[in-house]
Amino acid sequence: ALIAAKQALSFFPTSSECYAVMGQIHATLGDTIAAKEAFQQALYLNSNDATAQRIFAEFLRDQGDISDAHVHIQRAVKLTPNNISAQQSFASILDSLGQFEQASRQRALAHFLIGKEHEVIGKWDQALEEYETASTLWPENALFPARKGILYTKKKLYTEAELFLNQALEMNPNEIEALYGLGILKADTEQRTEAVEYLLRVLEFEPEHGLAHYALAISYHNLAEKEKALTHLKKAEALGMIVNQELINICSSDSF
Questions:
Q1: Does this model's pTM top 0.70?
Q2: pLDDT tens-digit series, residues 233-251
Q3: Do 70 and 93 touch, CB atoms closer than 8 A?
Q4: I want to staple 138 with a disulfide (CB 3.0 to 4.6 A). Which of 18, 29, 34, 108 is the partner?
Q5: Which three-class secondary structure string do you get for 160-226?
Q6: How many CA atoms lie within 13 A of 228 on its CB side?
């Protein structure tokens, strides 16, 4: 592995990634001095290499240099807040510093991100388990019950969904995920006026929320308000959403 890493560096001598890998290999071989030099070179070449920041932080943690490890893992998380490994390493380092409550919150975020990965590929029960764990670790965070509510809406378990979404709003009346989730729930249950109200509140806080624009377009279409529907369809498309072209044609036509 060390030979391969050196060969890679001969082709890409300014690659921070190659130096970071080299550092890992040296650390595995027990050559801590060479490992530290390789990590430092990686960050000299690119201080915004989140992977190098994380791996160096883990190396420093294992060497007992918790203070410096904390500095580098903070940078890694700031650069890639949705990276599960970075969140988990941050939690470990915070534990070493005795910051147990903050460590618990970082673990909650890691479980939440794992849940989202499960949700994307349709493993909804596993996603719910991860969201529940996140809520247990950080019970004050309204994002977690909001996400559970959205997932229950996908499962068409509307009673459970509304319970969690309202719980999230009680915790934080401005929780965007909860407002969006209630908008979707109301649309699904044909409460279209209420759906529009919730989705418009989402846009008050996040005007570039593509999903909210698209959901609004559909709700306005169902309310026979084609101009508003078309406005939000075009906005959703401009934000990178894949929109139903037939719906755009309908809303653009003279008859509705």
A1: yes
A2: 999 999 998 887 777 777 7
A3: yes
A4: 108
A5: HHHHHHHHHHHHCCCCHHHHHHHHHHHHHCCCHHHHHHHHHHHHHHCCCCHHHHHHHHHHHHHCCCH
A6: 12
